[in-house]
Structure formats: C-alpha cells, structure tokens
Write a sequence for this structure.
C-alpha cells in the first residue's frame, strides 16, 4: 500500500454512514460482520459520537497524516496507517479525556473497517479485532505477522481440534463460537495460538541437539512465553484509562464468567511491568519443573498465578511437550520433516524465551513488516507442505518401529528429491497434488514401504 492508497475522506465517510445505520439497531448490529468485529465498544463509541462530530475527527486525522508525510520514515503503508490512528487516539484522549477517546476511537474504527487489513479467515469474524488493531501495538504486530506467516483461522464443525502451530492452521472449537450469524470468535480465543505460530510455529516439529528432554523444555517455554504475552495486550488496552467493555470480557474469562466476584490477575498485575515479569519468570520456572517431573504431581505455583493459570494446566502443558518432543525425536519423523528447511530466527527466539521476559518490556520479538500478499502466498504453500510432511512423519514413526537407519535415510532422500534439492519450490502447486495423490496413498503400512523405496 502506498501513501496514495490511504483511505480517502470519502471512503471513511461512506463506511461511517454504513456503520451508523447498523449501530442504531441492536439486531442489525448483531447480524452484521461489522457489528461482530466492532462489538460492544465499537457500537458504544459510534453512539457517543454524533455524525457531525466525526467530521472534525476525520479532518484532524488528515492534518496529522499530512504532517507525518513530511517524515522520511512515513511510507504510508498499513503499519504507518495504524500507528497514526493509535497516535491520534492517544493525543485526543490526553487533550479531551474520555470524550476525546470515544470520538477518536469511533473514527479509527471507521478507518479500520474501510481498509479491512490483513484478513485471516473466511468463515469467522474475529470479535474486537479492529479495536485491538487500533489500540494495541503488540496485537497489531502479531496480526500482521500472522498474515505474512500464512495463518488461517477456520471454524471446526465437529470435535475438538488438534493444536498444530507448525501448519499455521488455527481451528476454532465450536464451544468458542456463540450460536450467532455471522459466526464469530473472540480475539482472545485466537490471539494466543496466533502468537504461538508467529513466534515459534516451526519449532514445534524440530528436535534439540541436546536431546528429547531439552526439546520438551523448549516447547513448554514457548507455551508459557505466549501466555505471559497476553498480559502485554491487556496492559496496552488499559493504558488509555478508559473502562472498555472488552477489558471486562477479558477479566471475566479468567473466572469462566462466574457471576460472583473474582480476583483478576489481568487487572491487578498486567499494568505493572515489573510484576508481569516476575509472574512470567515464576510461570516458566513452574513449567520447566513440571517437565522435569513428568507433569506429576501438579506443580506448586506462585500464589498470584493461581487465579490466572491453573497448576493442572501447567502440568498438562508439560505432558503435551514431552509427548511432542518424543514424536519429534523419532528418526522417521525427522526424516520427513527435516526435508523442509527451518524458518529463520524462530529457534533463536525460542532460546531467548528461556532467559528473556517479554511481558513487561516494550520490546516485541517479531519484525514490523507490513502485511504483504506475496509473503502470505509463499507462507501458505510452505504451511501446506509442512502439514503434509508432519502427516507423513507421524505415519512413518508409527509404522516403522525399529526399522533400520538405512531405510529411514532412504525415505528422507526420496522426500528431499521430491521437494527439490535447493529447498522447497513453494510456488509449484502441482507438488502438493503429487504428494497427496501419489506419496501418501503409496505409504500405507508395510506394503507401502516397498513401493516407496523401489
Ligand atoms: Zn498456548
């Protein structure tokens, strides 16, 4: 997106006119894609901002963008647009208090819906997505990275979906989608898994050279680092000093929406960066201890953590990490998955997660590139290959048992040839077809091995 393609005032006015019409009727708001995204805070901001008032905010934002254009660093892409929207909300809030916040938020949401940046899903609306894109820099960076990393979010019609961050596919369980049309899911039900993919997705299929236990320790650290980052998003939302309805929703999720009072770690701890870091350290320590002990008995955890993450949950993270590490160290699984090159930087980032704490700092361990359609297309192809390689690898480790290293090596060689010697030709759509139609059907247990190797 270039400077010239920032939305025009006419675009924003047209979107605003549509949103105001919807917001006037609760039933129309509830039944629309925009209402599902902008939800209660979006409707509230619009209804508190008379249309005539919005004109002033459209105008003052134009003045801000004109000033920014004189800076070399301002390229006018999607990242700059949202940075400018956030700066506008901050300035209006500091100058005019809550009314300034509400009016500038109404304007920012109209702009966000005009550009509808970096969509990740065709069959779900992400509730409060635009709100967080405007108000939280961390969320925005993860969202744009998720787009470039080929993350797709889908609704799971049946059953409980498996967790497969390496494939970039986030499948949302039915229990997280209320029975409303259009179908929708809260941002906090997808944001956490999105962070997993963006930060560490590729690491979920790799094996540490230090052995299986080291792999399990790394995986559990990835989990706890992602959990701790949730605190940052809360802090960024709370920073405006306005009691957003969405903050109440986030707190209520901690208690499972119990009607009686509860202690909110988000509300009490997240605003204090030093305390957030202490909690992150305690969380990681409990998780690593749990890996060492096999997840049993449940770890003893810091008292302040207990209303946020159950010790049972940490124990199950530890067990899951150990099982995944064992799969990853199986030679047959390695043979399939190592044919796909690792993603740059993710392994190092996971190493950093062991000794750095990100919840309390302003540092965000991801790049800040704008959403890019070519990057997404390439990543989507890679994710398809990875999903297939995992399928092949899991089949091979189940079926081969103690087959010889030589057979594993041959299997690996065949796959590498298929994928191409210089790395995967990600742009070649016919390869997926070859693998699905020829390789996978060919390697059914036992009979298959001969077919594959000869
Ligand atoms: Zn997780």
């Amino acid at each position: 997106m270039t400077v010239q393609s920032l939305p025009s005032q006419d675009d924003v006015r047209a979107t605003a006119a549509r949103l105001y019409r919807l917001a006037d009727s609760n039933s129309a708001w509830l039944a629309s894609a925009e209402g599902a995204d902008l939800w209660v805070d979006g409707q509230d901001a619009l209804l508190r901002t008379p249309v005539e008032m919005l004109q002033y905010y459209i105008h003052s934002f134009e003045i801000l963008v004109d000033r920014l254009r004189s800076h070399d660093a301002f390229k006018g892409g999607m990242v700059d647009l949202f940075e400018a929207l956030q700066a506008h909300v901050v300035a209006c809030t500091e100058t005019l208090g809550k009314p300034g916040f509400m009016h500038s938020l109404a304007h920012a949401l109209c702009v966000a819906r005009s550009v509808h940046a970096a969509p990740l899903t065709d069959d779900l609306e992400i509730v409060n997505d635009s709100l967080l894109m405007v108000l939280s820099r961390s969320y925005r960076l993860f969202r744009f990275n998720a787009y470039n990393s080929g993350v797709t979010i889908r609704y799971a019609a049946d059953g409980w979906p498996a967790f497969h961050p390496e494939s970039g596919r986030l499948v949302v369980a039915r229990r997280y989608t209320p029975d409303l049309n259009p179908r929708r899911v809260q941002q906090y039900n997808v944001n956490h898994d999105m962070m997993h993919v963006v930060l560490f997705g590729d690491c979920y299929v790799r094996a540490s050279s230090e052995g299986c236990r080291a792999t399990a320790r790394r995986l559990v650290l990835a989990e706890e680092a992602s959990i701790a980052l949730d605190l940052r998003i809360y802090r960024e939302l709370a920073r405006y000093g306005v009691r957003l309805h969405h903050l109440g929703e986030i707190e209520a999720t901690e208690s499972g929406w119990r009607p009686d009072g509860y202690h909110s770690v988000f509300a009490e701890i997240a605003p204090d960066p030093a305390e957030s870091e202490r909690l992150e350290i305690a969380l990681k320590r409990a998780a690593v201890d749990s890996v060492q002990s096999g997840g049993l008995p449940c770890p003893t955890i810091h008292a302040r953590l207990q209303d946020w993450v159950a010790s049972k949950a940490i124990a199950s993270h530890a067990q899951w990490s150990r099982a995944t590490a064992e799969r990853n160290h199986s030679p047959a699984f390695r043979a399939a998955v190592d044919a796909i090159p690792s993603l740059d930087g993710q392994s190092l980032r996971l190493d950093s997660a062991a000794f750095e704490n990100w919840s309390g700092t302003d540092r965000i361990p991801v790049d800040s590139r704008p959403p890019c359609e070519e990057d997404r297309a390439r990543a989507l192809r890679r994710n398809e290959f990875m999903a297939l390689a995992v399928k092949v690898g899991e089949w091979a480790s189940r079926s081969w048992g103690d087959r010889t290293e030589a057979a594993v090596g041959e299997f690996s060689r065949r796959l590498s040839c298929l994928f191409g010697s210089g790395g995967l030709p990600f742009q070649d759509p016919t390869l997926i077809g070859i693998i699905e139609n020829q390789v996978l059907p060919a390697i059914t247990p036992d009979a298959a091995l001969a077919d594959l190797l000869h």
Q: What stands out?
A: The chain has three domains: 1-117, 119-367, 374-453. Residues 64 and 70 are 11 Å apart (CA to CA). Residues 78-115 form the longest helix (38 residues). Residues 192, 196, 223, 226 surround zinc ion (CB under 6 Å).
